[in-house]
């Protein structure tokens, strides 16, 4: 019998080598996805390309060994790329940002010991989506130069200018430096990615197993080699290609790792950057952990506090040896689960394979055109800020759309932390205006096994109630009956509906029977 179809108490086997047959192939798939993303995120960060590889290795091996999450995959993330880009500008060097990464890791460990792992539940989804959408927009804008073969400064090198004259002058100025070869590679890479990801092709195992980003990158190498052989005027070289150090020996390879510049340890700006990294990295890691637990076919619950500690140690290690900040990443985590990853062995495997790859074939990696990485990042950025996302948020109503849109505009016109503060303030104002009543009433507080628990939701149930509702449902005893009564409710936040839906999917394992009253209408409004 297929293990995934067995009852919950029979099928879970968390031993490190209990799923080798599926974990090893899953680790390889995650590596194929992570490699171009690690290089691309380094490019978006304005940091050395090798720093993204280091972060991928540390996220795979170090965090994978320490994290209690079974399916999480960690590494450099697009959400932190913006922070690093701005920090290099303000601190003057990537070595100083490495110090901030170490301090951010210390902050995360402290948060873990303070049991702050539930902090992500207190941020409204509208604000979080606004943060990610703004990062996606900036990611796309900053890749325009590389996509056209322009090797000048990043368009958002300083967020202080916002959408001022300098930004549009920079965009228009790119057209004076267009490389036809780079443009062709960018366009063809985008075509390959979109064609490869069509649902019709995903029915075939090969197209599901091999990621589109990898195919685009490999194809770009071939196209540039074709240019070199037959159309030298289109060929890309030098600063328009990946430039990783190539070692002739093991000792020389380890000499490539750089060390942080502690001379700025007294610079107050350093700690502002560290707080920014810690906040964004922790938020994304906690959200990814929550998503990973939902994707896990065994529905295992991860310790968010242990996850924070593991991410903190990962950032300390990455910062000391020249890597970007690391976080748990939803895209790689979902790829890991869908490819058969069931224990940390899969994420550790992806880190080990990446280490071997960068040691053994750096000259092949140095043939990759930056234009193809820009195409990959265009797609990553668009997924964060797609048109369909704006449509969904608009249909969700003003209570969702206003904080979402204000957060985007604030981040784009100021900086990440200021934008988050403004978006958070607007979210709280909008919600507190309606949040006058107790969110729910529990008729049976003792939660004895076999009891009937009646949870009556009030008129307004918001994201501020996520943690209390989740804890109430988590403490329901086995063999009980839970009645969720939404007959009095006028509005139930999407975050709360997601918690109830997650409870429904796991209640069967505890033999909990669920009855709902007038709840379906709120799910219908979401769709």
UniProtKB/TrEMBL annotation:
Its main location: membrane. It comes from the Bacteria. It is a multi-pass membrane protein. It is found in: Membrane. Keywords: Membrane, Transmembrane, Transmembrane helix. The chain crosses the membrane at residues 24-43, 49-66, 97-123, 130-151, 171-194, 206-231, 270-291, 312-331, 351-380, 401-432. Residues 21-407 form the SLC26A/SulP transporter domain. This is SulP family inorganic anion transporter. It comes from Pontibacter aquaedesilientis. The lineage of its organism: Bacteria, Pseudomonadati, Bacteroidota, Cytophagia, Cytophagales.
């Amino acid at each position: 019998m297929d293990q995934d179809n067995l009852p919950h108490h029979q099928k879970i086997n968390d031993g490190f080598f209990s799923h080798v047959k599926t974990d090893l192939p899953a680790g390889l798939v995650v590596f194929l996805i992570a490699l171009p993303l690690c290089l691309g995120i380094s490019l978006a960060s304005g940091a050395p390309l090798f720093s993204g590889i280091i972060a991928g290795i540390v996220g795979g091996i170090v965090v994978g060994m320490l994290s209690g999450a079974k399916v999480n995959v960690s590494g450099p993330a697009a959400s932190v790329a913006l922070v690093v880009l701005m920090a290099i500008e303000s601190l003057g060097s990537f070595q100083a940002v490495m110090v901030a990464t170490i301090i951010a890791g210390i902050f995360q460990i402290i948060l873990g010991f303070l049991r702050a792992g539930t902090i992500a539940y207190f941020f409204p989804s509208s604000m979080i989506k606004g943060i990610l959408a703004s990062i996606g927009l900036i990611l796309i804008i900053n890749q325009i130069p590389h996509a056209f073969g322009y090797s000048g400064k990043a368009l958002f090198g300083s967020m202080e200018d916002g959408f001022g004259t300098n930004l549009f002058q920079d965009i228009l100025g790119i057209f004076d430096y267009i490389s036809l070869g780079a443009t062709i590679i960018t366009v063809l890479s985008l075509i390959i990615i979109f064609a490869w990801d069509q649902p019709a092709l995903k029915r075939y195992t090969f197209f599901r197993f091999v990621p589109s980003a990898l195919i685009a990158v490999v194809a770009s190498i071939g196209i540039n080699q074709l240019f070199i052989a037959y159309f030298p005027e289109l060929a890309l070289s030098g600063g328009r290609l990946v430039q990783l150090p190539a070692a002739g020996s093991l000792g020389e390879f380890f000499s490539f790792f750089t060390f942080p510049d502690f001379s700025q340890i007294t610079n107050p700006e350093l700690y502002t950057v560290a707080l920014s990294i810690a906040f964004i990295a922790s938020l994304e890691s906690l959200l990814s952990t929550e998503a990973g637990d939902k994707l896990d076919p065994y529905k295992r619950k991860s310790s968010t506090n242990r996850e924070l500690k593991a991410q903190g140690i990962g950032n300390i290690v990455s910062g000391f040896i020249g890597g970007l900040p690391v976080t748990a990443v939803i895209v790689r985590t979902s790829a890991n689960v869908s490819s058969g990853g069931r224990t940390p062995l899969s994420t550790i495997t992806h880190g080990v394979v990446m280490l071997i790859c960068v040691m053994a074939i750096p000259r092949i990696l140095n043939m990759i055109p930056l234009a193809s990485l820009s195409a990959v990042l265009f797609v990553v950025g668009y997924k964060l800020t797609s048109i369909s996302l704006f449509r969904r948020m608009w249909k969700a109503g003003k209570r969702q759309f206003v904080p979402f849109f204000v957060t985007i505009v604030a981040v784009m016109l100021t900086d990440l932390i200021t934008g988050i503060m403004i978006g958070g303030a607007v979210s709280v104002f909008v919600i507190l205006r309606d949040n006058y009543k107790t969110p729910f009433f529990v008729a049976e507080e003792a939660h004895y096994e076999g009891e009937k628990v009646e949870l009556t939701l009030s008129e307004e149930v918001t994201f501020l109630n996520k943690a209390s509702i989740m804890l109430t449902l988590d403490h329901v005893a086995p063999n009980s009956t839970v009645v969720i009564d939404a007959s009095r409710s006028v509005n139930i936040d999407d975050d709360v509906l997601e918690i109830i839906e997650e409870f429904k999917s796991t209640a069967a394992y505890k033999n909990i029977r669920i009855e709902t009253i007038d709840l379906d209408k709120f799910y219908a409004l979401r769709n």
